[in-house]
Specification:
The protein contains six helices and no strands. The protein is mostly helical. It starts with a helix and ends with a helix.
């Protein structure tokens, strides 16, 4: 990465900090990125390389390696959480069902 690319990256990160988008817009951004075919492949690769269920502590390895594996798995878990969750605005728009009184329709079940 050359100096110009690094300066552009730093400027982008600084602009992102200042804008502080809402959680809903961030969730939508994650879904736009990882909801594409290439994004899905990248996400599948991340899950494969940094599995969520793999042991963090391995006999003969130090705490640093365990912390690195744990941190990587936490990032993957965060991405997965944001790609499958619905933004708050979208959740609020969904009609609430009355408990126990309303019969389920075929649309509700599917």
């Amino acid at each position: 990465m050359d100096t110009q690319e690094l300066d552009t990256l730093v400027a982008s990160l600084e602009a992102a900090k200042k804008s502080s988008p809402s959680d809903a817009s961030i969730i939508l951004d994650y879904q736009r990125v990882f909801g594409t075919e290439p994004g899905g492949r990248v996400l599948a690769d991340l899950v494969k390389r940094f599995p969520l269920i793999a042991p963090r502590f391995v006999s003969g390895q130090g705490v640093e390696q365990a912390a690195q594996r744990d941190g990587a798995a936490q990032v993957v878990a965060h991405i997965l959480q944001y790609t499958i969750s619905k933004p708050r605005q979208e959740r609020k728009k969904a009609p609430a069902k009355r408990a126990g009184r309303q019969k389920e329709t075929k649309e509700d079940i599917q």
